[in-house]
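Need a sequence for this fold. Nothing fancy.
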């Protein structure tokens, strides 16, 4: 059954409506390069949903302040945003809401650092269900 047909049947089957809402966006694997403002601060926006982050990859430069605006799609399922890379000057743990929350840090080491949701429900964690992404810090 296609996703479109699946969602049309949601009108008569409430359980299918929830399945439609949890479908990842079409461009789940998009990559975003942080933009730089006139003060040299890098900016990127990340949105979480039912077991996905968009974009899945953010590219930023080392030794420049990076400000992330992170939020989740509206809904009842709690989500978080975690990056734990103290070796690169990055340690973030935010509970997500539908209004963006900003966090600023300076990545001090090039590398690839995983961001993820550390929430869990019945069974697997959100991270295990695919709610992960990568912050790629590149050299100057």
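Here you go.
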């Amino acid at each position: 059954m296609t996703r479109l047909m699946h969602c049309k049947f949601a009108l008569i089957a409430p359980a299918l409506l929830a399945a439609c809402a949890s479908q990842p966006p079409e461009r789940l694997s998009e990559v975003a390069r942080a933009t730089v403002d006139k003060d040299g601060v890098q900016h990127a926006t990340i949105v979480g949903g039912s077991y996905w982050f968009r974009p899945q990859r953010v590219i930023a430069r080392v030794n420049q302040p990076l400000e992330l605006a992170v939020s989740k799609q509206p809904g009842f399922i709690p989500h978080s945003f975690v990056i734990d890379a103290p070796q690169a000057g990055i340690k973030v743990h935010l509970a997500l809401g539908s209004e963006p929350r900003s966090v600023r840090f300076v990545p001090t080491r090039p590398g690839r650092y995983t961001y993820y949701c550390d929430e869990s429900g019945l069974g697997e964690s959100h991270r295990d269900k695919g709610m992960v992404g990568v912050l790629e810090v590149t050299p100057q």
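For context: The helical segments are 3-9, 14-21.
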